[in-house]
Amino acid sequence: MSSDPVSPKLPRLSFWQTVSSVLAAFFGVQSSRARQRDFSRGDPFAFIVVGVLMTAVFVATLVLVVKLILRVAVPA
Q1: pTM of the model as a whole
Q2: Which of 5, 23, 46, 53 is most exposed, with the fewest beta carbons within 10 Å of its own?
């Protein structure tokens, strides 16, 4: 006989829930409830992939903004 209670398998997070959690983590506004949900239902690989992609988009956006500012500020 097992003394462990039987817990129902919780569904995995959707793509948009994962993106939302990563965005909240980027800004540092993740709620405790969402963090618990992420740790219990989230896929670590999905968080890593979304985090790396969002970081790449962020860096690319910064590079483009700096290039645009330099093009406007320093005439060729």
Answers
A1: 0.76
A2: 5
Q: How far is CA 66 from the centre of its chain?
A: 24
Q: What sign results for the dihedral spanned by CA atoms 41, 45, 49, 52?
A: positive
Residue 76, token pair as written in the block: 């060729």
Residues whose CB is less than 8 angstroms from the CB of residue 21 and which lie 6 or more positions away in sequence, other chains included: 13, 30, 34, 38, 42, 47
Q: What backbone torsions phi and psi does residue 22 show, to the nearest 5 degrees? A: -70, -40
Only one residue has tokens 């948009």, namely: 16
Domains of the chain: which residue ranges?
15-73
- State the pLDDT at residue 10: 80
Q: How many residues does the chain have?
A: 76
